[in-house]
Amino acid sequence: MKRFLRNCLLILLLLVTCAGGYIVWQGYEKAQEITAEVSLEQAAQRAMAAADYTPPDRIPETLKEATVAIEDRRFYEHQGLDIIGLLRAAASQFLPDMVRRQHHWAADGQEPLWTV
Fold this sequence. Notes:
116 residues, mainly alpha, flat
């Protein structure tokens, strides 16, 4: 019975890996199509020509730091690729209640934002 369960889990892992690879490949192809239509330089020029564009040097440093702090408190530790965050997000798809209880706490160690 244990062998059967192990084999089922291995097959499931293989299927999930193949599905993930397919999704990544589709995203890659779509990105290639988009970049073939408009170059990165053209897209950047179009963005800078927009009426609501603000050059980076005119954005207050405190706003930049606050944005990083809100979006990703460990940004400076992983330089943009948060493996732990990616694994947590993937796990939350399969184990949403467990991950929610462990990781979604209020700031400064206060009580959770909801009642369990």
